[in-house]
Amino acid sequence: SIPDGVLTKYSHDFGYAWLAALVEAPVTGHPIMGVSDHGFVAQLPRGPHRSRYYLQCAFSDGPADWPDTRIWDEIRLRLCDNTIENAVVHDKDFVPMRSVVYAPMQYRNLFLVGDAAHLLPPTGAKGMNLALYDVDVLAQALVRAARDRDRAALDAYSSTVLPHIWKYQEFSAWMTDTMHDAGDPTQNGTFRQMAARARLDNLFDSPTAARLHSEYQRGLN
User: Fold this and answer.
1) Do 89 and 156 share a domain, yes or no?
2) What is the tens place of the pLDDT at every residue in 193-202?
C-alpha cells in the first residue's frame, strides 16, 4: 500500500451530474449532442434498436426524481423534437461530473494506471484512452527494466505520463464547461452561458480552433 502523505489528490466537482438511461428507441446512426436552455442532452447508439441518453441533472438527483415520463419529456424539450415517442427505459444510472488526479502515480514498485490514478468527466470520452496510454508507457518501461536491467523509464513513469494526463484533463474540463455552460444558465449564470456559446461558435468559424479540437478529440496529442 501507499503510505499517507505520499500522494497529492487534485479534484474538481463540476456541480452537476448526468442521468444515463438505456432506452429501446430507433437510432440515427450517429451520436447527437444537444445544448439548450433546459440543459445538456446526448444520444449515443447502442446497437440498431437501443440508445443511451445522457441528460444533465442535479448532483443530488436519484431514480425517484426521474420517472420514465420525465425522461422523455426532457429529451423532447432539450432536442426540440416533439415527434420523439416514449419507449421502454431499461435502466438508469447517475454519473457525477468530476475530475480527479493523484500524483505521483508510483511509489517504489507500485504503479497506478487508469481510474486508480485519474478520473475524468465522460464529456470528452477520454477515460479509456488515458488508461491505455498509462498501460502502454508502463508496459514498455517494465520490458526495458526486465530485459535490459534499465529502470530509467520505470522510475520516470509518473513524470512521463502526468503531463499527457493533465492535457486531457484540461480538454475534458473545457468540453464539460462549454457543453453545459452554453445551455442552462442557472448553474453558472448568463455571462458563462454567452462565453461558452462563443467558444462553440469559434469551432465553426475558426479552422485553427476546429483543427486543435479535432486533434484532442481523436487523441492525436
Assistant:
1) no
2) 999 999 999 9
- Per the structure, how many domains does the chain have? 2
**CB-based contacts of 14: which residues, under 8 Å, 6+ apart?**
97, 98, 99, 121, 176, 177, 180
Count the neighbouring beta carbons within 10 Å of the beta carbon of residue 55: 22
Of the residues 60, 81, 96, the one at which a domain ends: 96
Put simply, whether the predicted model's pTM sits higher than 0.85 gets the answer yes
